[in-house]
# Entry
Amino acid sequence: MKIISVDVVGVPVAQGSLKRTAFGVIHSNDKQLKAWRDSVMFELINKKPNDWDVDAAFSVSCEFRFMRPKSHYSTKGNGTLRPAAPKYKTTKTDVDKNLRAVFDSIEQSGLARNDSQIVQAICSKRYCETGESPGASITLSSQP
# Structure
């Protein structure tokens, strides 16, 4: 089994919403999405082992990290969370749309011929811990 683990720093961008223009169909957040997918591809390509099998089935694990809004913190300026601050990130973006951007990045990076080779996906999203940067921890594991 081969494993690729990367940590991509930056705000995760969802892929899913499309809009029609006179020039065709584009993602409504195209500029941010392209930059995010480029970051994911860069990290994956840099960690790709020489003997990675682009035809193999593999599993993907992703943990997306997001910054908490300022409203979650005390107004006293000491950086403590309010007692009512939510534990889980249940607001946008949707975890499946974040995952879709990662899947397409995997395919575009040349680690798979098609994202249909992904046979298992484990995904979560959460708020950053103190001192932690937003981004995603991504692990690909080839399957025997």
Summary: The two ends are 6 Å apart (CA to CA). Helices lie at 30-47, 95-108. The chain has two helices and six strands.
